[in-house]
């Protein structure tokens, strides 16, 4: 019988840094001002439903754009020489070594009035500020999370057996049919992983909208950040609702992944 001792540190880590904080959030969410059980925090959380829905919508748009950009890039990356693949992967990872907030500041500088983008577009008679709108928020989200979409898709595509592609070609399939019948179905697990890795942090992120968006572009992560300092119960309730939605999303993604594996 194999020893289970190596799993003990992992279990302790999960209990201390994952389960206990989640339990504390749940208890705080259902605790009223008098210290007893209360649903008042969830009633207050209901007032932020528009912000919550907008956050999910922006996260979905950002995820879709990341997928549209990442999939062809990952496919082209698999066709490059191994040395070129390693170089491109390094270029994708270099921005991630920089602090998250610094990367946002960089986009603030680029998009602000009289910034680099405005200066270039001024030569074509276009002048203005490109901050303070949903488009800037989506741009920042796509920039931040695009590598998390590219790398899982690239990893799965690079492991596709070339023998399957050659067999399809020998059977008379053209390039389109090889891609649609072989490459695309086999790359779905990477697509699902990429969607999960992008959507989950996009839905709960904060600071991006604060720096790149306007007053109407605030996201649920920013609300949690602000509310929690003055009303921990309401902040915990919003966090709990968000966790439930994310959990449902993860279950759906795993379901589709299992269905694809069975197929």
Automatic annotation (TrEMBL):
Tell where it localizes: Cell membrane
Q: Where is it mainly found?
A: membrane
Query: What positions does the domain ABC transmembrane type-1 occupy?
Result: 52-253
Show the InterPro entries listed in the entry: MetI-like, MetI-like_sf
Q: Which domain of life is it from?
A: Bacteria
Kindly give the SUPFAM superfamilies that the UniProt entry links to this protein: MetI-like (SSF161098)
| Transmembrane stretches, start-end | 12-31, 51-75, 87-110, 130-157, 178-200, 237-257
PROSITE patterns, per the entry: ABC_TM1
Q: Which UniProt keywords apply?
A: Cell membrane, Membrane, Transmembrane, Transmembrane helix, Transport
**Alphabetized Pfam families for the sequence:** BPD_transp_1
Q: How does it sit in the membrane?
A: Multi-pass membrane protein
Q: Which family does it belong to?
A: Belongs to the binding-protein-dependent transport system permease family. CysTW subfamily.
What name does this protein carry? ABC transporter permease
Species of origin: Ruminococcus intestinalis
